[in-house]
Amino acid sequence: MYSKKYFIGNWKMNGLKKDLVQLKKVDSFLIRNKFLRKSIISIFCLPNTLIDFYRTNLSKEIKIGSQNVSNVNVSFGANTGFVSFRMLKDLKCEYVLIGHSELRSVGDNDKSISNKIKNSKQSKLKIVLCVGDSLKDFKSGTAYKKVTNQILLALKNNKKLLNKIIIAYEPIWSIGSGIIPKTMYLKNFFDKLNIFLIKKFKKQIPIIYGGSVSSKNIKEFKNIKKCNGFLIGGASLKSKNYIDIIKNYYN
Fold this sequence. Notes:
The chain has helices at 21-32, 34-39, 48-57, 85-90, 101-104, 110-119, 135-140, 143-155, 183-201, 239-250; strands at residues 5-10, 40-46, 63-66, 95-98, 126-131, 165-169, 207-210, 229-232. By secondary structure, it is an alpha/beta fold. The chain has an 8-stranded parallel barrel, surrounded by 4 helices. α1 (21-32) runs parallel beside α10 (239-250) and α6 crosses α8 (143-155). The radius of gyration is 17 Å and the shape is globular.
């Protein structure tokens, strides 16, 4: 459906300046591999403390994103601890994660997530909208309803911004657990999500998967045709692990 796959690393609250050597190694790997440069979009969502240093000194083949943004529609103001789209744009960010389950669990909600997306209209940043179900949702058979409701609440007032959206489906119970849903379950889930998006928004929107993605299980995702890439957490912290994921997917 899409010619390139997204491989998005999320460093979460990890990394010091010295650790950026890991990204330099990924850069070098991509520079040496013309086929992969044409086949993937490599993105790393870094802590804000590292974004400018990396952009200034190292970036070649990797695109940079932030892990969150303010839900207040101002570029500057009396909002201690907030970071605006204008600030991220100034750092030459190209992507931003919005709605990650770890932030939802500490107060981010459907209204604030919708506002964050709405505020992005003045920037060129692309939005990686994170949605996901709990183990309770999964076991009760309400996962699809939960995820589609999250999507509707985030996008129903932001239909003019759909060209900027990538949806990251992350089963919350899979994040960091090493457990991933069965391939057939994911295939059906992605097929249904794709149909839902076309029906509700008259548009195909890229959908990626996140949750314990590793070099050991990446081949299991190859048969999920509607999966347009991956949001990679802990495995993105070390260049070898991230590179092995890409290698194993294409080998």
